[in-house]
UniProtKB/TrEMBL annotation, chains A, B:
The lineage of its organism: Bacteria, Pseudomonadati, Pseudomonadota, Alphaproteobacteria, Rhodobacterales. This is Copper export regulator. Keywords: DNA-binding, Transcription, Transcription regulation. One of its GO terms (molecular function) is DNA-binding transcription factor activity. It comes from Tritonibacter multivorans. The gene is hmrR_1. Transmembrane segments: none annotated. SMART domains: HTH_MERR (SM00422).
Length: 129, 129
DNA sequence: GCTTGCTTCTGTAGTGACTACAGGATGCAT
DNA sequence: ATGCATCCTGTAGTCACTACAGAAGCAAGC
């Protein structure tokens, strides 16, 4: 039986977040020891790790839960998984494109900022539409 | 005098968000007409646009406010502006690097998902640590 | 068996930056 | 006079946590 602190260390999910996941029904309620402390099994650690990995990949909690449910589901899971994955991939690619534009704009902005002048070209750039 | 709907259209900031900005003291309180409606001047539209542009560039509200205050400030503004800009640029670059890794992982994940199989390689990939 | 210090418990409130109502008043064109 | 768009205030919800407060349990050393 694994206590919550150890579960946190093993899964990489913080203690507060594990409790939050339980509260919200994202993971099932952990069994309690005689004194009321949460006790986890290896299976539950794996579940936490699965959720963590999905979150690290930028999936929403909702998607993470859907993927976890599919993980124990029957045949046609793979198609759904691929759909969620592709959708998320295109979201990520859109965000990448946006950030690249952003980076370019910021590089220009900062480059224009010649120090020591009384008027600031970067502020002017922000003011301009 | 410009009403809030028009101000929203002119600045690209939603009506709800303009009211939120006022409530939070991010912009100063708009003058009211006899009947209590908000009325904006060109200056205030510019202010909204300035904040909007900062937000679009990914600056926090806090940074946006700091930049706006600098925009009316004396000489040494430029240095501060450059500091904020550079800091933000490196944040953006870090996020870009993260997203690129993410994209790579997702591409692999989705590519591995050969449809129609009864076990799903993508789910296996998510399960593996 | 007592103290010390770490871990855990529940419950609540806060974060950032909005967004979404509900329920009512106002303005304008027909 | 009627209808519809626009606006008002105030409150609550979103997402995914994070941060307490205050109390209780546990393990080790003295």
């Amino acid at each position: 039986m694994i206590a919550i602190g150890e579960a946190s260390r093993l899964s990489g999910v913080s203690i507060e977040t594990i409790r939050y996941y339980e509260r919200e029904g994202i993971i099932s309620k952990a069994v309690r020891t005689a004194s009321g402390r949460r006790a986890y099994s290896d299976t539950e650690i794996s579940e936490l790790r699965f959720i963590k990995r999905c979150r690290d990949l930028g999936f929403s909690i909702q998607d993470a839960v859907a993927l976890r449910n599919l993980a124990d589901a029957p045949s046609d899971a793979c198609e759904t998984v691929e759909r969620l994955g592709s959708k998320h991939l295109s979201d990520v690619q859109a965000k990448l494109a946006e950030l690249r534009k952003l980076e370019k704009a910021l590089v220009e902005l900062v480059a224009n900022c010649a120090k020591g002048q009384s008027d600031c070209p970067m502020l002017d750039a922000l003011k301009a539409r």
